[in-house]
Write a structure and sequence with these properties.
The protein contains 14 helices and no strands. The protein is an all-alpha fold. The relative contact order is 0.13.
């Protein structure tokens, strides 16, 4: 068909209107399957080799702390006569005599302390106390901080103003003062350490949750829930907090090593758990006094502190990258 050269009629090619071939149809198929935000985040986290290695380290430390002491042949309170300050894998004279007589004696893998107690089981029990403090304190602070920050952000106005001014007052006093005062009045127990940390460290979580909810509380789905008559508790629990859970999970992962280090510091200065119970900080404090003669007594608890804190931080970095919507492909 001849086309007028001065017209604006488009030149049509009949081949453009032919049905698409199977190859052309297949080329239009999206190869990446549709996945949810959390599933996609977990996939990317699994691909992060550093985060996965860190997770394995945490699991090994937890097995070392909570499972191995159940069948370990020594008790963390038991004192062996003549076995003071033994080196790793070394036996006392009495134990060596029993071995020579044909008896099987389990070795002191990490040696013994100055009172003849097996150091490996002491490190295990210290790991248990430190990890329990870090994990339980993080969980409690997550609940307190999330509830406080959500209520302040959701209601806004005078409620937000009053609640955040209380936070400002509390944050103006150094947390170490709270910790020392509470420990002095309640004594050196694990429950008092948890209470002291929970009363002082929830402020950061509350501020973070408040900031996130202030950004999303005006979204359409929140307004729709209000229009449908949903109560405040349901809106916060079903709509607001779940949409901040990614950032909260990263904050939780980053908070655990902070609490472990705080507990270790309190135990190091003598405000931790009472003997014969122990923790990484108490072991490090005792080992520091024997550093010149028995350096292994400081090396083992410090090594576990470093590995655990570093692993939690690396997992937190991996979660931050995996749950970042900007990095989705």
């Amino acid at each position: 068909m001849k086309q007028n050269p001065v017209s604006f009629q488009l030149k049509l090619n009949p081949e453009d209107f032919l049905p698409a071939t199977e190859e052309e149809k297949q080329s239009q198929i999206i190869m990446r399957e549709s996945v949810s935000f959390w599933k996609d985040g977990m996939r990317r986290l699994v691909r992060n080799k550093v985060a996965m290695v860190s997770l394995v380290v945490i699991i090994v430390v937890m097995i070392f702390s909570f499972i191995v002491p159940g069948f370990y042949p020594y008790s963390y309170k038991e004192q062996a006569k003549g076995a003071n300050n033994l080196a790793p894998m070394e036996y006392s004279e009495e134990e060596q005599a029993r071995i020579d007589a044909g008896e099987k004696v389990f070795p002191h893998i990490f040696g013994t302390d100055n009172l003849g107690r097996d150091y490996a089981i002491r490190v295990m029990m210290g790991s248990r106390i430190s990890l329990l403090v870090g994990l339980i304190a993080t969980g409690i602070i997550f609940i307190i901080g999330s509830a406080y920050g959500s209520i302040a952000a959701f209601f806004g106005g005078k409620v937000d103003l009053i609640m955040m001014r209380i936070v400002d007052i509390l944050s103006g006093i150094p947390s170490l003062i709270y910790l020392i005062l509470i420990m002095m009045f309640l004594g050196n127990t694990m429950s008092s350490i948890l209470l002291a940390m929970c009363l002082t460290f929830w402020i950061t979580t509350a501020r973070m949750v408040r900031g996130q909810i202030l950004q999303i509380k005006e979204q359409d789905y929140v307004q729709a829930a209000k229009a449908l008559g949903a109560d405040t508790g349901r809106i916060i629990m079903k709509h607001l907090l779940p949409n901040t859970l990614g950032i909260i999970m990263v904050d939780i992962t980053m908070s655990v090593p902070g609490f472990i280090f705080s507990e270790a510091f309190l135990s190091y200065i003598g405000l931790g758990v009472k003997p014969p119970e122990t923790s990484w900080g108490a072991l490090a404090s005792a080992g520091q006094q024997q550093l010149m003669f028995y350096p292994y007594q400081l090396f083992f608890p410090c090594l576990l502190i470093v590995l655990t804190i570093l692993s939690f931080h690396l997992i937190g970095d991996g979660l931050s990258d995996a749950l970042d919507p900007k990095l989705r492909q």
